[in-house]
Design goal:
globular, Endonuclease Iii, domain 2, Endonuclease III, domain 1
Length: about 210
């Protein structure tokens, strides 16, 4: 596998490789400006935090995660399963997220999933392995692989901001579907993680520009 994207230096090397693969991205990188990698803890706690943050603002997810993480044993699979559902729900977790984290904890304790082994798989295989856990979809798996393991070649093509940013940056006629965007992103392999970070930063740049509505 290509070098993990887990440091400023690694990001710089991945971006350089990405720009060599697709010269169209040079102007996008110039407009986006510099940005850091995103890093979070791997393992059960890291994936539980990604699940916590689904479809929430950063502020809301942070507040809920702070209350959840303070629960005794919450960041350990066995400890989580000892908690009562009411206790977990009181921290702000929805019923669905509570069940998803329980399914994750059970899969880890049963040896059905090895997160270290999954992180070493090619992107599509890794996403498929995590998506077999009930309640975990491709976006959650991809975000975990990117930010918690530094997987270098993951691209969350279902992300609305990425779809809009790629459409604008590449001058497409309309916002691409997840399938179409995944096909576009294949040209950026093995640096798709860096491409996603670049286009997220470009999206933020566009939203901050006067007169640009996305």
């Amino acid at each position: 596998m290509t070098e993990r994207l887990d440091s400023d230096a690694a990001l710089a090397r991945h971006l350089a490789g990405l720009l060599r693969r697709d010269r169209r991205l040079a102007a996008i990188a110039e407009a986006a400006g510099p940005f850091p990698p995103r890093k979070a803890a791997p393992g059960f706690a890291g994936l539980a935090q990604v699940i916590c943050g689904q479809q929430l603002s950063v502020a809301s997810a942070s507040a809920i995660w702070g209350r959840f993480a303070a629960l005794p044993g919450a960041l350990d699979p066995a400890g989580y399963l000892r908690l009562g559902e009411a206790e977990i729900r009181a921290s702000g977790f929805s019923a669905g997220k509570t069940r998803t984290v329980a399914a994750l904890a059970e899969a880890l304790l049963a040896g059905e999933v090895d997160l270290d082994a999954v992180a070493a798989l090619p992107a599509e295989e890794a996403v498929a392995a995590l998506s077999r856990i009930k309640g975990i979809g491709p976006w959650t798996a991809e975000i975990y692989l990117m930010f918690c393991t530094g997987h270098p070649d993951v691209f969350p093509a279902g992300d609305l901001a990425l779809q809009k940013a790629v459409a604008h940056g590449l001058g497409l006629d309309g916002r691409p579907s997840s399938r179409d965007l995944m096909a576009i992103a294949m040209a950026w392999s093995p640096h798709r993680h860096a491409a996603a970070l670049l286009f997220w930063r470009y999206y933020a740049h566009l939203r901050n520009r006067e007169g640009i509505a996305l």
